[in-house]
Design goal:
- Strands 1, 2, 3, 4, 5, 16, 17 and 18 form an 8-stranded mixed beta sheet that branches. A 4-stranded parallel beta sheet has the order 6-7-8-9.
- The relative contact order is 0.17.
- It is built from 13 helices and 18 strands.
- The protein is globular, with a radius of gyration of 20 Å.
- The chain folds into 2 domains: about 80 residues, Urease, subunit C, domain 1; about 300 residues, TIM Barrel (Alpha-Beta Barrel).
- The protein is an alpha/beta fold and about 425 residues long.
- It binds (4S)-2,6-dioxohexahydropyrimidine-4-carboxylic acid and zinc ion (ZN).
- The site of zinc ion has 7 residues, from loops.
- (4S)-2,6-dioxohexahydropyrimidine-4-carboxylic acid (DOR) binds next to loops.
């Protein structure tokens, strides 16, 4: 099987390539990148006017299976990812049972293979049952193929236990993905703490709940020499702490989510529970700092924190609704609309933050387009406008704050190991 992608603007951050080329895919590999490739019996994709980039990689997705299949399954989450241009996704361990042992890791791989769409890389729990008490079966999970460790949704409250986890993680060359939240400080809060939360009569989550943990985790990473990846950065102080730590040589990387650079706490005003997310939407200054952090390289990756919840769970009082919003299908559109079209990131930087850097964080030989390299490719129409529709999601859930918003930038095709897994009709 071969596929010839004609006349697209090929942008690759690793090879510093940006120009109109054809790409010939044979089997699961890219066999040639050149101008005017002539080949007779190929399947041809006309990419004129489109961007052809390395397959996007999402470091932060909640697939909900096993345990919460009514919200999402490995199949439906993979379909949503493919539609969003992602060729690889990392799924967080807060399932039921938790991904804290080899059996569940093997299950996730088996189901994703059955789905046969995108690469699914499980993230193993740091502690058993995400309880923050005993370390999970890290060695076994590594053997089964986890790419990182995280108790996402929770911090590891005990610094001593996290230190031990970091020492183990280093032995197995696994990064720790840190959910930085001091639960004692954030307890009961449902939105950013400040003037808005007072006006709306909602209990706030103070920014210091994030900042203290970013600071603690950086110090532990410095002390243990472990690779630390800070998840969903939401505060300007966190950006500053990460910037400083990087300068000092700490092995720290970070990600931000599209909702944290597209929305502020003002979005909560209508009490729409689809604006309830953890960490919460913050202030204009935070959004500006995140954008600056993306631009100057402090924030390495853009990840979605795709967190599906059912309509009935979200259709309740703001205080009671679960935290989380879906993100797989709107991420690229938000990046193009809010960052590229507004002159904050170049396409090459987008490729860096959504493909090359995420691949590096999880140690996968992906995220770039080279002859002989893997044929995970995303094709984007950068000019096409579309409206986010409630009934338009492939995900099983529709808990998005972006419903009704017009986005510029449409994923036209997603190719995984040479196979088209999504094509815009
Ligand atoms: O908003 C969130 N939703 N934040 C998290 O940390 C967890 C996630 C979920 O699993 O729903
Ligand atoms: Zn999460």
């Amino acid at each position: 099987m071969s596929l010839l992608i004609k006349n697209g603007r090929v942008v690759d951050a690793k090879n510093k390539q940006d120009g109109v080329f054809d790409i010939l895919v044979e089997g699961a590999k890219i066999s040639k990148i050149a101008k005017n490739i002539v080949s007779k019996d190929d399947n041809v994709f006309d990419a004129k006017g489109m961007l052809v980039v390395p397959g996007l990689i999402d470091l932060h997705v909640h697939l909900r299976e096993p345990g919460y299949e009514y919200k999402e399954t490995i199949l439906s989450g993979s379909q949503a990812a493919a539609r969003g241009g992602f060729t690889s996704i990392c799924c967080m361990p807060n399932t039921n049972p938790v991904i804290d042992n080899q059996g569940v890791v093997d299950f996730v791989f088996a189901e994703s293979k059955k789905a046969g769409l995108v690469n699914v890389f499980p993230v193993g729990a740091i502690t058993k049952g995400l309880k923050g008490e005993d370390l999970a079966d890290i060695a076994d999970m590594k053997e089964s193929g986890v790419v990182a460790l995280s108790d996402d949704g929770y911090e590891v409250a005990s610094a001593a236990l996290l230190r031990m986890a970091m020492e183990y993680a280093s032995m197995f060359d696994l990064p720790i993905i840190a959910h930085c939240e001091d639960k004692e400080l954030s307890s009961g809060g449902v939105m950013n703490e400040g003037y808005m939360s007072t006006v709306l009569g909602l209990k706030g989550i103070p920014r210091v709940a994030e900042i203290t943990m970013v600071s603690r985790d950086i110090e532990l990473a410095r002390f243990t020499g472990t690779k630390l990846h800070i998840a969903h950065v939401s505060c300007k102080e966190s950006v500053a702490l990460i910037k400083k730590a990087k300068k000092e040589g700490v092995k720290v990387t970070s990600e931000c989510c599209p909702h944290h650079f597209s929305l502020t706490e003002e979005a909560v005003e209508q009490y729409d529970t689809n604006t309830k997310v953890n960490p919460p939407l913050r202030t204009k200054e935070d959004v500006e700092a995140i954008k600056k952090g993306l631009k100057d390289g402090t924030i390495d990756c853009i990840a979605t924190d795709h967190a599906p919840h059912s309509i009935s769970e979200k259709d309740t009082e703001y205080d009671l609704a679960p935290f989380g919003i879906i993100g797989s299908e709107t991420a690229l559109g938000l990046v193009m609309t809010e960052l590229v079209d507004k002159g904050i990131l170049s396409i090459e930087q987008v490729v860096e933050k959504m493909a090359l850097n995420p691949a590096r964080v999880i140690g996968q030989d992906k995220g770039y387009l080279s002859e002989g390299g893997c044929a995970d490719i995303t094709i984007i129409d950068p000019k096409q406008e579309w409206v986010v529709e409630k009934d338009g999601f492939v995900s099983k859930s529709s808990n998005s704050p972006f419903i009704g918003k017009t986005l510029t930038g449409q994923v036209m095709a997603t190719i995984v190991s040479g196979k088209i897994v999504f094509e815009k009709s």
